[in-house]
Each structure stands twice: as C-alpha cells, then as structure tokens.
Specification:
Elements lengths: L1 E7 L2 E6 L10 E11 L1 H7 L15 E9 L11 E4 L2 E2 L5 H4 L10 E2 L11 E5 L3 E3 L5 H4 L2 H14 L6 E5 L3 H12 L3 E5 L3 H11 L15 H7 L7 E4 L4 H7 L8 E4 L11 H6 L3 E4 L5 H12 L9 E6 L3 H4 L12 E5 L1
Parallel strand pairs: 10-11, 10-12, 12-13, 13-14, 15-16
Antiparallel strand pairs: 1-2, 3-4, 3-8, 3-16, 4-5, 5-9, 6-7
Helix pairs in contact: 4-5, 4-10
The protein binds zinc ion (ZN) (2 copies).
Amino acid sequence: MKTLLLSEPGHFERTQTEEPGAPAAGHATVRIHRVGICGTDLHAFNGRQPFFAYPRILGHELGAEVVAIGDDVQHLAVGDHVAVEPYLECGTCQPCRSGRYNCCESLRVLGVHTDGGMREIIDMPAIKLHRSEELELEQLALVETLGIGAHAVGRAGIQAGEAVLVVGAGPIGLATAQFARLAGGRVHLLELDAGRRGFAEAHFDITASLTPGVDGPATVGDLRQHLGGDLPTCVFDCTGYHASMETSLAFPASGGRLVFVGFQLEKIHFENPEFHRRELSLLASRNSTATEFRRILALMESGEVDTTPWITHRASYDDVVEIFGSWLAPESGVVKAMVSF
Ligand SMILES: [Zn+2]
Ligand SMILES: [Zn+2]
C-alpha cells in the first residue's frame, strides 16, 4: 500500500508497505483519507523535533474510513467516517489507572513515537476511533488539533467573563482561543506575526486582538492598557518558543494561572519571589482525551465550532513530497495544511 516515509530529516520517500491483516478483537482497520500537518510534522521534517527517531511515518491528525472491524467492536460499522485519536496509552501505569491516560508514562503518539497515518491503511484499537455521520473527512482530520485547545482550556477551568490571554495564533492558539470563548472567557490574542493576527481577526471573531509593539513583544504595561488596567487571570502560551514562554510568566494577574500548551527543549527560568508574590499557578497541558474528541465532534456537527477557514494549503500523496518543504517558510502563510491520500 502507498506509504509516505520520512527516511531522514528533509527527505520523504514514496514507498510501499504491507497492509495490516484482518483486525483482532477490539480493533479496526481504517483507510486514511486526510492527514493534517502541524508543527510537530514540520519540526520532524527539518530535524528539530526532540526525541524523534528516523525513519518514521508521520501523521497524527487523521480523517479516516472504517474498512474492517474485529470481534467485539460494537460502536463502528464498515463505511463509517471517523476521527482518529492518535494516543496509545499503556493502560496500566499510575496516570492511566487514575484516568489521566493522556499523560501515560509510556504514551506512544502515532506519527511521533510510533508510525502514523501517512499510509493507506492502519490498524487501530477501535476505542480510538470516533465516528461522525455528518462531518467531512477533512473536518475529522482537524479534531486532534482542536483537542489540544479544548484540553488546555479544561485544564485551566476558565470561568465565564474572565479575561484570557492566548499567546501565539497558530492552529493550537486558535483552537485554545475558540474553546476559551466557548467557556465564556473574554479572549485576547497576542501574536507577533501580522498575517496570523489578521487571520485570527477575520475568521475567528476575535476582535480584541492585541498588536505588540513594532520593536518586539508586548510588555505588562501594554497589556494593562489594552485590558483597561487589569491583567488577564489566565494566560495560555501556545508558541512553543522559549523566549515567549519565559515572557508569558509576567502576564497573569496575581492569583492567576499560566498554561504551557506548547513545549520546547530548554529550561524555563522564573523569579521565584515574583512567582510567590503573585501566587501564580503554572500548568502543563498534554494531548486530549476521548471525552474531548466526542465533545468536539458534537460542537462541529452543531456548527458551534467552525473550522472551515483553517485549511489554507492542500496537497495529495502524489505532490506532497515536492510541496512539503515550502510549508516550513513563514511567508507561506500556512495555518493548516492537509494531505489527501
Ligand atoms: Zn498536530
Ligand atoms: Zn500508561
């Protein structure tokens, strides 16, 4: 079957791999139709993804169709269109036993720690497949990205009316902003790139987007001015950039919280007395859960979450090898690229 293999940084190979056999009990095989591309994939391509082993089949944002089901699979039928929850937990470690399987101690994420969906057919545990009768395959491939934002907002426990700052308006920032708004937050965006800022304002009804100074990122003073004297009580850093993540520690009001939605490799430093004085809460957010997948599908089906404008670039199996590298350039303006298989 057709497979796209990232054999080493910067080099995709169109190749053939063996199809999985008939699904075991509790499993299903799915045909991959759409694969969303995100920062994780781009960093893997340019060799800057930490702990990444080559060769690897990328692909963790998947819109798929069920082609066979094993015994004991009740909730799926052949032909169903599904979003794939790409997180394979061990089921037995301490976080798994307490229901925190999104941060399983030996979690394997499709396309990162184990081969992903840039191939025609994959075998999956059936509980990782979430069906929708209404959504397009392309929309199904966006559920995983939305899940990152939904989970981050859940971690923070956003209250109606509270002032929220989202730093970084890439797909994860946009997803986080959307769910923070759904939770009733008054959402402000901080994004250095004018193109991304404009995109967020045009497509996401986020009118209070904050324009940083031309010389660099916004200061606490800028923020106070923008928010009428107050500071946000919750800040989400969705950049994955060291400098931004250190700066974001200055933004929450006393008693507030900061959620690191993105991550990077370096150590983050902060002033302990300042952290203490403002009694901040610092939270990490990792992946998402099956409950969040199902909620997102319902929100997309009802139209409360509209992701139509997200997909700015498309390619097919036949031309993605030539096109993929161009998506790394900031001037490409990629918000979300989608590969069809
Ligand atoms: Zn992703
Ligand atoms: Zn586990």
